[in-house]
Amino acid sequence: MSAFAGVEVAARTPRTHVALVDLLDRVLAGGVVIAGDVTLSIAEVELVRISLRALVVSIRADMAAGGHAIDEELM
Amino acid sequence: MTTRAGAERMHDAAAPTPAAQEAIWLYAITHSRDQAGLAGLPGVGGGQIRTLQSGPLTAVVESLDPGKFSAEGLQGRLSDPAELGVIARCHHDVVVAVAAEGPTLPFRLATVYVTDDRVHSLLSLRKDEFCHKLDWLAGRTECGIKAWADPDFLFTERGTTEPAARGPGGRPAGGEPPGPAEQSGSAYLFRRRAELAARVERQRLAARCGQEIHTALERLAAAAHLHPTQDPRSDGEEGLMVLNAAYLVESALLSEFADAAQAVGAEAGALKVDVTGPWPAYSFADGPDA
Prior knowledge:
The complex is a heterodimer.
Chain A: E1 3-4, E2 7-8, H1 20-29, E3 47-49, H2 53-64, H3 71-74
Antiparallel strand pairs in A: 1-2
Chain B: H1 2-14, E1 23-30, E2 49-54, E3 57-64, H2 71-79, H3 81-99, E4 104-106, E5 111-113, H4 116-125, H5 127-137, E6 140-149, H6 151-158, H7 185-218, E7 223-226, E8 240-250, H8 254-267, E9 272-279
Antiparallel strand pairs in B: 1-3, 1-4, 1-5, 2-3, 6-8, 6-9, 7-8
Helix pairs in contact in B: 6-7, 7-8
């Protein structure tokens, strides 16, 4: 998957050179939490918060298995 | 937290159902209304970053295309590692730009409201709490510290286990090499027990190394937060990560703090100490009362 909202991933050169793994530690586990970890449909409830901790674990597992997709993003 | 979530829910129940579905991505809350630094920054949905005011508070948000950002669509994008990376960096770039203007409370990634009114409600409902946290963060910044250690080195230099566990293969230091008669069950058990003891000791020493660094740095910081240590494969570093922490420090003392981290790391026998940041205060959004 290289496109996001019509913009090529490569075109979005990171302007802040932080390691993705450090960034994910913070944006997925830090920050103001509004209503806890609730995964809800937008149609029914006005507030959506998606828990992503499990996802990070799976990303790290992918990388350990030799995934290359985001390796260069890491440094 | 439970009380707050409960109050939020009660508020939700009383609020009128919004007429049209939108998706409003929340980046951060701050005091400063002047957010010229946001101009031209690409948002997570490629839309324009804008601000919503409520009293002393400013929320930095972006309207997402509800067609592209349904709950399922958003979930799908966030589940793709490459897209998650792009979204995280876009979110971060905006939060960094806001933090350059003054104290900033970042929202956790993927905090989405359905209308501007809901964001206004949030700001007015929790005004005191957000102001209190922003005051606490003023003049401070988040510094990341990661430390690695070589457990074998710590074991050799600082181990306290009896010599029996130290020699190669558990051979007692200075003892006779095992004769043929000792290549038996009891010798094997002795060796295995010594190996296990050595492994436990290596783990204990690695944990203590991280704890020593943390204890020293915590004293120099307004607040501290421990993140889980990262998978060794995820950053290509040598050694074992013994500390992955964030410290809230006075911005003016950031370089002194970084120097202290290196000094404390060396004293604790760490292989390497990495300093990251300054970060927006992601790890301290719970405020001073956490």
